[in-house]
Design a protein that fits this description.
488 residues; Methylamine Dehydrogenase, Chain H; 2 domains; 3 helices
């Protein structure tokens, strides 16, 4: 055995604790140096487990429609870019893809202009990471009223890990074809959905299967009531597909439906649910029990989530209030929904675990490997911790289990008054139904906490240094975080 292997075995057996036990007998300065270095490494590793949070603004004129974690611990986002075109003397819409690292710093961005009529269809754009580290982006070109404009088509762009375009393909039916979703398939190809229409007909759900180079293998259309549209398609473990779609021919007939297909696109079953689908706004994931979780925007206001078994039989459904149609699976097999200034966490049976107030209203969000969330709001990305905070990592909440809250009786931001702000130290808090007040500094360290016995409560931060602080108000059924500046 060579010396390198001997050293590797020796290092594998040494821990900071064993070195410490022998420290009185060790006189060799090199071993003491090793002890110090290893403790630094252990400590650094502990800090590296913390959740990263950020709030980043990107290119003006961008609206990001989807964002996903990537295998390098960063994020990929897709949407559109709206800018004034001096040649057209009009607004022009281009395709937009953004890659950022783990702290939200831009690694690259692409604004892709395929035709002068890319704009108009700006809902449902998505981008997905592929097994080789590259990306697939779907949207639409020639997206204007037809005729006299050119026919609109699905647009699929294949990019490498650096954002360089490898190829583009389009897919169409006469009159219009609008691409909404792309999902990678087990054979290295792509499954796409959206909607399409022939001349003189209403729209149908339109599914396209392509190979790894984007060449179409098959396409099929599906119709339920009238004006039918699909928002999401995922490949199932049997090689087939599950589709979330909706009908909006008339509000009385507005429905959400799940459709199970085999690997050739033939329909195996269809289940119809009583919620409308507003503006092709729905999202679908396959759950660990091989069932399905779906979120849909019912009318222009509310988001409904429902869970089915593997055959599409309804297990539970809930209206989660104002919000967009997206739902994220959490690491404990529950689900997370962001709404209008709130985050709701539910268990696998749909029972609410906790609702936390915040001030973001995402279009799209996903769970992240560190048990936080990445969210997209127009030209901003918010990376939050496990309870939706993006201003600081809430180490107390994210290291404990939160139980027993519901969506009613939230602490409302506009009903909480904290003054003066900025403050020289003495602060008054006026808020009802608060059980615990925590003061956290700008790096997430708990400074102090109080249990108020009245709605109007005073605290004194005069002994703290100047800077930004967070006041966390914990009620019976929700949590609210407010910022305050100390300037003595």
């Amino acid at each position: 055995m060579n010396n390198d292997n001997n050293m590797q075995l020796l290092m594998a057996k040494i821990t900071p604790i064993t070195i410490l036990k022998q420290s009185k007998k060790l006189k060799n300065a090199a071993l003491w140096f090793l002890f110090v270095i290893m403790n630094i490494l252990f400590t650094s590793n502990a800090f590296s487990q913390s959740q990263i949070v950020f709030d980043k603004t990107y290119n003006q004129g961008v609206s990001m429609q989807a964002v996903w974690p990537t295998s390098d611990n960063g994020y990929i986002a897709g949407g559109y870019y709206k800018g004034w075109d001096t040649v057209l003397n009009d607004w022009n819409y281009d395709h937009y893809i953004l890659k950022v690292d783990s702290v939200g710093a831009t690694q690259w961005e692409e604004i892709i202009d395929i035709t002068v009529l890319d704009g108009g269809c700006i809902e449902g754009i998505t981008v997905r990471e592929l097994s080789d580290g590259g990306f697939a982006y779907i949207s639409t070109i020639n997206c204007a009223q037809n005729p006299p404009s050119p026919l609109s088509k699905y647009l699929l762009i294949r990019l490498d890990s650096n954002g360089d375009t490898l190829w583009t393909e389009t897919y169409e039916r006469p009159k219009r074809s609008m691409g909404q979703w792309v999902d990678p398939t087990a054979d290295g190809g792509f499954i796409m959905t959206g909607y399409a229409a022939d001349y003189g007909t209403s729209a149908d759900v339109y599914i396209v299967k392509a190979d790894s180079l984007g060449k179409q293998e098959w396409s099929k259309s599906y119709q339920l009531y009238g004006e039918d549209q699909a928002a999401c398609v995922r490949q199932t473990s049997d090689g087939g597909y599950i589709v979330a779609a909706g009908s909006s021919h008339a509000y009385a007939l507005a429905r959400t439906w799940l459709m199970k297909l085999n690997d050739k696109g033939d329909t195996l079953w269809t289940k119809v649910f009583p919620w409308g689908m507003w503006n092709i706004n729905a999202y679908l994931e396959i759950t660990p029990d091989n069932g399905f979780i779906v979120a849909v925007k019912d009318s222009n206001t509310y988001q409904v989530a429902f869970k089915t078994d593997s055959l599409g039989n309804l297990l539970w459904s809930k209206n989660f209030g104002k919000g967009n149609a997206c739902i994220s699976q959490t690491q404990d097999n529950g689900f997370a929904l962001f709404g209008l200034n709130y985050l709701t966490l539910v268990d696998s049976n749909g029972f609410t675990i906790q609702t936390i107030s915040n001030n973001i209203h995402p279009t799209f969000w996903q769970n992240t490997p560190d048990n936080g969330y990445i969210t997209a709001v127009e030209n901003r990305l918010y990376k939050t911790d496990c309870v939706g905070n993006y201003l600081f990592w809430d180490s107390l909440s994210c290291s404990t289990t939160n139980i027993g809250t519901h969506m009613t009786d939230l602490l409302k931001d506009h009903e909480v008054v904290i003054y003066p702000n900025p403050s020289t130290g003495k602060i008054t808090i006026n808020a009802a139904d608060v059980q615990l007040i925590q003061i956290v500094n700008s790096v997430g360290k708990l400074i102090d906490q109080y249990k108020p016995d009245t709605e109007k409560f005073s605290i004194n931060l005069s002994e703290q240094t100047n800077g930004l602080y967070f006041i966390k108000l914990i009620g019976k059924k929700s949590t609210l975080v407010k910022k305050i500046v100390l300037n003595k």
